[in-house]
Amino acid sequence: MRHKMAGVNECFSIGSIVACKTCYNKEIEGEVLAFDPQTKMLILTECPATNGQTPLNDVHIINLSLVSDVQVKKEVNTVPEPPQSLDLYRLNIRVRNQIDEKRRLVTALSASVPPEGQKLFYAISKTIKEVSWQGSNIVVFDTVTITPPYKLDNVRAHAECKALMHIRKVVEKHMREQAAAEAGTSVAGAQTSPQ
């Protein structure tokens, strides 16, 4: 294969515009995002295409060992700005929160409750973080308790509160979604069963 490159140690500056022809005769042109001379991997982004309000870029990872032609259309010699430093404190907090969330969900699995209770627990925990198990009961905000068999009639509060109505709506929505999913599964099963 023929390369229009100065040599194996050729480097592509970030921000340069490069065009190449792949082994499938597809021509790709874009701005260099990264280049690894050891593996001969080049990452290009094409000019942004707009999809509504959000600009989208196609990103191509190209193995230069498999291209027949590479041309630098516009060389950028300026040194790119260093990447912004990471806020390690915020990252550690995010990691810690994610670990706590996973532990809480694992606790839901280890609680000896039926799948209906576990599904409802997951549905509630998607929007409300203050949900836990108290034996086989689901406790939300330390004020609302949902007892087995985890139906709308099983949602009770220690005192009249706004959270009760909200939790009842969440449970009702979950029950509708579960009924629709079960109806869809039984319809699909009936359609695929041999006649």
Describe the structure using short key phrases:
disordered N terminus, 195 residues, 5-stranded antiparallel beta sheet, 4-stranded antiparallel beta sheet, elongated, SH3 type barrels
Describe this protein's structure.
- With 195 residues, the chain is α+β, with helices and mostly antiparallel strands.
- Among the domains are: 58 residues, SH3 type barrels; 75 residues.
- The protein has 3 helices and 11 strands.
- The strands form 3 sheets. Strands 6-3-2-1-7 form a 5-stranded antiparallel beta sheet, with no helix packed on it. It has a 4-stranded antiparallel beta sheet with strand order 8-9-10-11, covered by helices on one side.
- Strand 9 and strand 10 form a beta hairpin.
